[in-house]
Design a protein that fits this description.
Layout: E1 2-9, H1 16-30, E2 34-41, H2 49-59, E3 67-72, E4 83-89, H3 109-128, E5 131-134, H4 137-147, E6 152-153
Parallel strand pairs: 1-2, 1-3, 3-4, 4-5, 5-6
């Protein structure tokens, strides 16, 4: 099966989601799938750019792919008939971080329109997904609270889990 994992990339920033995506692809290959990682460039400043990011992902068409696994906003918005979500997180500035100093969206009309656009795009994407998993209970609860979608928690595996397997001893 040809599986494409879709995630964001912010040039020169690397965190847990990037490592998770790479490990997912590596393990899919290990289990016999033809897997690859598509990194979508993402920029959220100025905030009006979020419209362009949403449109770009929603207009992208993937061919020669049997299944898509979406991880983060806005990459998970890429349409595909056989998409599964493994939600790392949404654009939290539009949800649980709204109204805090951690959000780049203000209390003005323009920011409210952007929040509504993000929520509508997310809701359409989640409704069209074949399955929704989250990386934690907290992400699952946020998704249910803000978007009304249920999900199953699928915790990320340990990195290089084979290093944690017990070894035989010479007794």
């Amino acid at each position: 099966m040809k599986i494409l994992v879709v995630n964001n990339i912010v040039p020169f920033l690397r965190g847990g989601a990037e490592k998770l995506a790479e490990n997912l692809v590596r393990n899919l290959k290990r289990y016999g799938h033809d897997a690859d990682l598509l990194r979508i460039p993402f920029r959220w400043d100025p905030v009006e750019r979020l419209y362009d990011e949403i449109i770009a992902c929603r207009n992208l068409r993937l061919y020669n792919v049997d299944r898509v696994i979406g991880l983060k906003f806005p990459a998970y918005l890429i349409p595909h008939a056989h998409k599964t979500m493994w939600l790392v997180h949404q654009y939290r500035q539009a949800y649980d971080l709204a109204g805090t100093e951690l959000s780049n969206l203000g209390d003005d009309h323009k920011s409210e329109n952007i929040r509504q656009c993000i929520s509508a795009a997310d809701n359409e994407c989640f409704a069209q997904s074949q399955a929704i998993h989250t990386i934690s209970r907290v992400v699952k609860e946020r998704l249910q609270h803000f978007n009304g979608f249920p999900a199953q928690v699928l915790h990320p595996p340990l990195d290089d889990a084979e290093l944690f397997e017990p070894k035989a001893t010479d007794n």
